[in-house]
Amino acid sequence: MTNTTAAPPEDTGIAPPADHADAAKTWISRIAEGRAWLFLVVLVLVFEIWSHVSFGATFVGSTYNWQSIAIFATAPLLLAVGETFVIISSGIDLSVGFTMGLAAVIAAHVTNLTGQSLPAPLAVLLGVVAAVIVAGIPGLVNGLLISRLRVPPFIGTLGMYGVARGAAYLLAGGTTVPVSNDFISTLGNGTIGGVPWLVIITIVFVLLMHYLLSQTRFGQHNYAIGANEQAARRAGINIRRHIVWLYVLSSMCAGLGGALYTARFTAGAAQAGEPLLLDCIAAVVIGGASLFGGSGSIMGTVAGALVIAVIQYGLVFVDVQPFWQFVAVGVVIIISVLIDQLQRRFSGARQDE
Amino acid sequence: MSDLQAISASGTPLLEVRDLSKSFGAVRALNDFSMQVHAGEVVAVAGDNGAGKTTMIKAVSGVFQPTAGEILLKGTPVRFGSPQEAREKGIETIYQDLALADNLTIGGNIFLGREPMTRMFGFLPVLDRKAMAEAARETMKRLDFHVNRLDAPVSNFSGGQRQAVAIGRAVYWDASILIMDEPTAALGVPEQRKVLALIHQLKAQGRGIIFISHNLQDIFAVSDRIMVLRRGILAGERKIAETSHDEIVKLMVGGA
Fold it and tell me: How close, in Å, is residue B83 to chain A by CA atoms?
């Protein structure tokens, strides 16, 4: 060393001020992080007691109930998984519902077309692949609009919502497209060891997306962009490319959702995902993501999607008018956001502001 | 650090800026500005708002292309097309707003954009969080900041600790020139002191530091030299040991 004149003074050490409230903080934030799973447990308990008191029947003990809930949750969950990535990056994708419809119609058409000359399973496979690829197109347009032309995500994807909607109805000829293929009904309604195929496919896909978000650079950069886009850019992350892939990913999740819809109902319909847009955003928010970006997880979203499915199925099970579903889901969303804000106020707050 | 020692022994400045100018349309934000930064030297750049401090650091760190003039790094002329290129050559800028991703750990921030990977079960590529945490611990120790909670997001830390993380990132990637833009501006007094101590330490490690500040007290506490800018022109250059607050203020506001 040429210059050792300035050794650091010893007395400047500062006790880490963030550490003193450690124990309490961890508890509050753990509860807040796991709130979707807590909701789920509470809801299941409520329905169990309710059905015991009113009908003397069990809610939890029935395998059929769980199968139905799981199948019920697959479509919104597939949309929500893609939406989780987008929301963490502090964007939003409103086009996923009709991208799903577009994919459902494409899956139906391609399966029918290729089924004329190819064996049934291969035709279905081609149908699914075509659906996912075509679904990527609105995502690509979204990504380019948002990253290159600086269109706000809300507006860009709202536009694509309309375009995908129109395209889906045009391709479907304004009606549903039935599929005649033995294999697709097995795929859509069959089970293995009591677990529906649709659920198995969804679980595998969700695990894959969990890996992508939590263990890869893509996932890490996604969190960084959501928290501080400027910082991510200065760190040398190619934000434009990331955003394009992000919206393609979101659309392709919707594409898979559409293809599985076609399998489940052996028909493709443009309106397949119409009611699911808000459900999927709700699942992400209940799952712990902030709409301001930077936080959220796939496992949280899984719990969020299950919460919604349990509410919707459970209220039907205990024979409540279906319109109460909307009220119940709405209340859960609001409570969830309130818990998030409480947690931020009590623990996550930065010290220097 | 042997590289830095060799450089400083030879007397070649780590960084030299010659006749740097930058115009925005008809406005000359910086006019024929020259400076040198030697190894183990802290050079303060002071000036009123709009004096050209930011323009100067942006030109040196690759954000702007200078209109005229040249930049020499260890005696070799360089041109930076982007901040990334400047960073690869060892010029790291620590911005006032810290440029940290609040939701990531210290390690996550140090490695942002160049994360190390490892394999799970021998085939699945995953982020090497252990290596990131280990490097974070080492780096923070080198800066004399002892942090235990390496799995906590940096939003949990205080302003001074966050500043240390930003500096730690530069140190980890072995920057030889650090440009620090108002590093003490958003901090409380004890934390300001801690950051000044950090700067002393970086200096002792033989790095060159360009220190931009409004705070004359901080400037006098850490700098070896001070360059005063006024309206894009170098108004004066003084050795800290041979000047006073009054003289610097006169240079800044002019009309002396």
Answer: 7
